[in-house]
Design a protein that fits this description.
flat, mainly alpha, about 65% helix, about 130 residues, about 10% strand, two-stranded antiparallel ribbon, 2 domains
């Protein structure tokens, strides 16, 4: 198996708590129109951040501009796009008949994660805010 296939199927990228914090900050900056996401068409297509890309943005994220660029590229041009590549490959080989079931499973998992987070929050508030 070549290295591309090995990375593609056996080493999926996971989202971290830093990724979640980055995405939340990015969403706020996009909503405030301080940043925007565009598609770069020249050569290999990719998503890029545009607009005020200076020190203010680096301070908002708490990392250097290069750090903002790296995390954005990893999340949007790797994790996000590769998720669609996986779906495309599975549906190209097995058809789209299972999509409805896969979406139902995904919705259920999301709801379960939300419930666990709510229970953890309730437990922390009852136990004085410390970690269990």
């Amino acid at each position: 198996m070549n290295s591309v296939a090995k990375t593609f199927w056996w080493c999926p990228m996971k989202l971290t708590s830093k990724d979640k914090a980055f995405l939340e900050k990015l969403k706020a900056l996009l909503d405030e129109k301080q940043l925007r996401i565009e598609s770069k068409e020249g050569g290999s297509k990719k998503l890029i951040l545009r607009q005020n890309y200076g020190d203010k943005i680096a301070r908002a994220f708490g990392v250097t501009r290069q750090g903002v660029r790296w995390r954005f590229d990893r999340l949007f041009n790797h994790v996000y796009v590769e998720a669609y590549e996986r779906v495309w490959w599975i549906e190209a080989n097995f058809g789209t008949e299972l999509r409805h079931h896969a979406m139902a499973i995904a919705r259920q998992r999301i709801e379960l994660r939300k419930r666990v987070a709510e229970l953890n929050q309730a437990f922390r508030s009852q136990s004085g805010g410390g970690k269990p």
